[in-house]
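INFO  loader      accepted 1 record
INFO  loader      residues=335
INFO  predictor   begin
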Amino acid sequence: MKILVTGAAGFIGMHTAEVLLARGDEVVGIDNLNDYYDPTLKQARLARLAPNANFRFVKLDVADRPGMEKLFADEKFDRVIHLAAQAGVRYSLENPHAYVDSNLVGFMNILEGCRHNRVEHLVYASSSSVYGGNTLMPFSEHHSVDHPISMYAATKKANELMAHTYSHLFGLPTTGLRFFTVYGPWGRPDMALFLFTKAILEGRPIDVFNHGRMRRDFTYIDDIVQGVVRTMDHVAEGDPEFDPDQPDPGRSKAPFRVFNIGNHNPVELMAFIEAIEEALGQTAEKNFLPMQDGDVPATYADTAELRQWTDFQPATPVKQGVARFIDWYRDYFKV
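INFO  predictor   done
INFO  writer      dumping tokens
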């Protein structure tokens, strides 16, 4: 198939493109290569994809409406994996307009491109952040997600609503994937694993929020990509038993689905830090701080729907995944 991967220079985008190329798909990757974090890392990721004859890169911002219209019209993609977004809960407190431009305007351009060019299936990145103020665990696609607590989360919830509208009005099959704390080699420098590793190796203290009383459903990158590719291969379908009198948030009569992709095994933050210390052979100096605005104390994914739909669920143990990241980090930065 000919597949568009947006955010191809990103953490999840690069790994997804690698898997698609390995199985023989043609991949067109786009990215705006912005400076939210060091573009050198993004260029290094692209350098891994560039040698493959089935990969082409186009520098393009998803918020560029004319550019996106031309791309879709020229390329005639079979399927689209939309991973480009302005990420980060904390950054959204300071720069909300960046989230509107990328996550709302950009997503609108993706939907229109798919609609007008007969794309067979749109798979897009949502986030566990949509669960917001929910406290019932594990988080399920059948739970209401009407109480986001950050602008980032609100834009991801909006993406799901926008996708449903296009599935309903135009029959466009869409699948949203709610990622739970993705980590692994080539990860983002603003994520905890990267920040902790860098600080420990440099002999600096690490900031531990909510005094360490946090739990996260850390999900290894290879598991995330398996979920992305498998859902892309299973085109979304409407649920003929959907009851509008008792609407299920995770289902629809339209060809619309949302799935959690998590490890279904929340890990205490202090245990996560211990795994990093063990892999590095160093102990971290810890700076305990209160909870940050927009953050939540725990995430925990119910992955039954993903397993039923794709016959897959993430299962990489955190200690194994962290060790692989540390190996990559030492190799990449020569430390």
